[in-house]
Amino acid sequence: xxxxxxxxFGATLQRYRNARRISQLDLANACEVSSRHLxxxxxxxxxxxxxMVMRLGEGLLLPLTARNAMLQxxxxxxxxxxxxxESTAVEPFRAILNEMMAKHAPNPAMLVDRHxxxxxxxxxxxxxLAPLQNGSDEMNVVRLLTGGDHVAQxxxxxxxxxxxxxxxxxxxxxxxxxDPEFAALLxxxxxxxAKHAQSEVRARQPILPLVINTADGALRFLSAxxxxxxxxxxxxxxxxxxxxxxxxxxxxxxxxxLV
Length: 259
Description:
Strand order of the largest sheet: 2-1-5-4-3
Order of helices and strands: HHHHHHEEHHHHHEEHEH
Radius of gyration: 21 Å
CATH topology of the largest domain: Beta-Lactamase
Strand content: 5-15%
Number of strands: 5
Number of domains: 2
Number of helices: 13
Oligomer: single chain
């Protein structure tokens, strides 16, 4: 490791620690290192071993992509693979995903990445996304929900949906550490929440439905999100499979006509 790498790693470590809102003392205790040594690592006065970088990434509870970034900043090779979804290594996992999405039909299903960009969607999900896209090729769920005045015409309970999404992304951004894409998405959400603020305080519901206006009337869906936490592949670990289920008999009867 060079002096340059020590400085780059120190700056990277400090950004992630600050983003996770963890003090040097708390991180040092979690990783069983001295706070003095941790201070030297952040200032670039000490150079970490590969084992130390891995220990700090684990102590910060960072996602695998961020742990790879810390290793690279320190001058080491990434520890976790990041396979393309089309690669041979991911084929068994893709088969599972395809089976899950196929069995979920005719209900909507979407595969999204960490930043909520849709990578795949079945036919019914594509038909529900189309009015939000409004002729664009935008595929990021957050940007679709914050993208224009037409969104409020499509999503009947948009203020509640935006508020719930804000809470979810704030937690995911905290988990991800220093991530500029999350910062940009949260900025767009803050503006949208202010613009579409609820006119009155409403009682909290046990489960918030997604209410979509269609030509056949309002359709109500409940969402279940599957994470894949057992993989050590950074790409797979970052994926989310969002499954929408009809929330009432009327929606259940209508969803079959979407395909």
